[in-house]
Write a structure and sequence with these properties.
With 257 residues, this protein is mainly beta. Helices cover 0% and strands 54% of the residues. It starts with 12 loop residues before the first strand and ends with a strand.
């Protein structure tokens, strides 16, 4: 059986994230009881609570995230909120008591339509990626946080379900996008690879393609090769068969096989 960390009266606890922390774990989540709030809590390696939930942030009308990454100065937390019409990406280092060390830093990037953020720790840096669907700015972006450099545009097309994975000499991003003129739920899984400094090693390319439905693209690095997986479904009905698909790539983005 699972361990209840915060038992809200209406059960509206969402968006869990977890990261390692020394010999234990830290978990964060959003609860919507009496207004959205972001909580964090320490756990043992076995998942038992080591402290009461800590309120990290509560001044927001809407949440995306959080994401959590381990760090030498404490857990790195990031989230997207809309507070009084001000929408943006916030991040903070959490101290030993899991409270932010100073005010969360606001990065005023335009994040309209964003439903997800992804993050990895790579060679001492925090790399984040997210989709945006704001007309001329729609597409996939990534940035190193901090410093708050200008986000790098990966693909000028609507996308979602972005995933990141890093290895010693580089990192890769995958995401789902729709065919031209089609719903985003239709089928292309894109892959783009980068070197350890964030320079592209390949143009964004289709790792998998299927109509009408392709979803849940994921990326990993195994045995010196990039593995991209996704799920295909032939129609939108609840009983339609689903297939787990995979493709392998060289770290420079070249497809293998």
């Amino acid at each position: 059986a699972g361990i209840a960390l915060l038992d809200g009266p209406d059960g509206r606890d969402t968006n869990p994230a977890i990261a390692s922390l020394g010999d234990g774990l830290v978990v964060a989540w959003v609860t919507e009881h009496l207004g959205p709030k972001l909580y964090a809590q320490r756990l043992t390696g076995e998942g038992a609570a080591m402290s009461d939930p800590v309120l990290v942030s509560e001044h927001a009308d809407e949440w995306v995230g959080p994401v959590l990454l381990p760090g030498p100065g404490g857990p790195f937390a990031a989230w997207v909120t809309e507070d009084g019409g001000q929408r943006g990406l916030f991040h903070a280092i959490l101290g030993g008591d899991l409270l932010p060390l100073g005010d969360p830093v606001h990065l005023p990037w335009i994040l309209s339509g964003l439903e997800q953020i992804a993050a990895i720790g790579h060679r001492g840096r925090n790399i984040m990626a997210w989709p945006s669907d704001l007309h001329s700015l729609e597409g996939l972006y990534w940035a190193e946080v901090p410093p708050a450099e200008t986000p790098i545009h990966m693909l000028a097309e609507k996308g979602n379900e972005v995933d990141l994975f890093g290895w010693e000499t580089g990192f890769a991003a995958v995401w789902r996008a729709g065919d031209a003129g089609a719903s985003v739920s239709r089928g292309v899984a894109y892959l783009q690879t980068f070197d350890q400094d964030g320079h592209p090693l390949s143009a964004a390319q289709a790792a998998g393609q299927h109509t009408p439905t392709l979803y849940s693209p994921r990326v990993a690095f195994l045995g010196g090769q990039i593995l991209v997986t996704w799920i295909e479904q032939d129609d939108h009905s609840a009983h339609a068969p689903r297939r787990l698909m995979a493709a392998q790539f060289h770290e420079n983005g070249r497809r293998l096989g």
